[in-house]
Amino acid sequence: MALRFKNSFTRREEEFKPIESGRVGMYTCGPTVYNFAHIGNFRAYMFEDLLRRYLKYKGYDVTQVMNLTDIDDKTIRDSQNEGISLKDFTARYIK
């Protein structure tokens, strides 16, 4: 059975075909570091990890990159409310 995904652009379910045969690149959303992670955040990370592991199991060479959002409205607002630099504010959630 082929792996299928819903294409949010076309709104159709499509068979997965990597751009480069045998290789998969994954760019996934990581945390926005304005507070500690919670169970709702972990669901997304678990799915990304399971997908990466499944693709490796199926024989693909997988490269995954996860972003970390340390500058956005929430981090700026909360660092200003605490009167500390954005770097110092976000550092406590990145460790």
Structure overview:
It is a single chain. The protein has about 100 residues and is α+β, with helices and mostly antiparallel strands. The protein has a single domain (about 20-95), classed as HUPs (Rossmann fold, 3-Layer(aba) Sandwich), CATH 3.40.50. It is built from three helices and four strands. It has a two-stranded antiparallel sheet. Helix 2 (about 75-80) crosses helix 3 (about 85-95). The radius of gyration is 17 Å and the shape is elongated. The N and C termini lie far apart (about 40 Å).
Q: Give the integer mean of the pLDDT values.
A: 94
Q: Architecture, according to CATH?
A: 3-Layer(aba) Sandwich
User: Hey, roughly how much beta strand do the residues contain?
Assistant: 15-25%
Q: Which word captures the global form?
A: elongated
Largest sheet entry: 2 strands, antiparallel
Order of helices and strands: EEEHEHH
- SS-based structural class? alpha+beta
Contiguous low-pLDDT stretches (5 residues minimum) are none
Question: Looking at this structure, what is the CATH superfamily?
Answer: HUPs
CATH class: Alpha Beta
The number of helices is: 3
Task: Specify the helix fraction band.
Answer: 40-55%
The Rg value, from CA coordinates, equals: 17 Å
Provide the CATH topology.
Answer: Rossmann fold
Biggest β-sheet: strands ordered side by side in the sheet: 1-2
Number of DSSP strands? 4
> Could you give the distance between the termini?
41 Å
Question: How many structural domains are formed by the residues?
Answer: 1
